[in-house]
Amino acid sequence: MVGDTDFAHELHTMKGGWVYIMTNKHDTTLYTGVTSNLMKRVLQHKKGIFPGSFTDQFLCHKLAWFGFYNTIVEAIAMEKRIKHWRRAWKDELIEKLDPDWKDMSEDWYHERDLEK
Fold first, then answer.
1. How many CB atoms lie within 10 A of CB 59?
2. Which of 2, 35, 48, 59 registers the highest number of CB atoms within 10 A of its CB?
3. What whole-number distance in Å separates Cα of residue 55 and Cα of residue 22?
4. Domain limits at 32?
5. What confidence score (pLDDT) does residue 44 get?
6. What is the pTM of this model?
7. Is the pLDDT of residue 1 over 80?
């Protein structure tokens, strides 16, 4: 699935919105976000494109969870809900999709893409 060229193309071209959770290498800090282009947004987090941002300050460069919604409005509503959840609920959500807390985007990019 991940790393598959067809999957990457589908992920890049789907309309609607993505809700995602980024974490740091120790899985101690979580950031919940929303985007219409998940691959581009995750790469921005990994590269620290926005100096001083929350994900830059806390080094949240691992994609721990993501979900697709048919419209950006639905995605924004879900992002807002998740942001109000207790940490334990977020952990449970992540572990359903990614029990080992691996970087779900680890096979999405070439090394040259990650250069700053």
1. 15
2. 35
3. 8
4. 5-107
5. 94
6. 0.85
7. no
State the total domains in the chain. Answer: 1
**Is 13 inside a domain boundary?**
yes
Cα distances (Å, whole numbers) of residue 24 to 16, 62, 68, 75, 95? 27, 6, 22, 23, 15
Closest CA to 22 of 73, 77, 113, 53: 53
Strand 17-23 to 62-69 pairing: antiparallel
Residue 18: CATH number of its domain: 3.40.1440.10
Query: How deeply is 112 buried, as exposed, middle or buried, from its count of CB atoms within 10 A (0-12, 13-18, 19+)?
Result: exposed
Residue 115 covered by a domain: no
Distance CA 79, CA 115 (A): 29
Q: CB of 18 within 8 A of CB of 56? A: no
